[in-house]
Amino acid sequence: MGVRLPGVVTLAKHIIRRSALTASRAASTSLDVPRGFFAVYVGENQKQRFVVPVSYLNQPSFQDLLTQAEEEYGFNHPAGGLTIPCRVDTFVDVTSRLSSS
Predict the structure, then answer these.
(1) Of 2, 8, 36, 94, which residue is least crowded by CB atoms under 10 Å?
(2) Is 29 among the domain residues?
């Protein structure tokens, strides 16, 4: 278990807000993200897009992934959205455990 930082949720909100601004300037695909969800890009080299529930932001295991993203990218995410620098199979494992609980 990692240390919980009170600013992790704030960080994610900032990244999502910034991502939304970037997406609205370009051809936005936000219409395919339902209300209550957000898109993340996952992968070490080739990024894969996932749409996950906002409720994951409160989960410690997802917050660990956000901390990794903060350490790797700060607020400059290469895909223009929230990018999580882990293997896709690791991300799928974490999110599948969250969805089953």
Answers:
(1) 36
(2) no
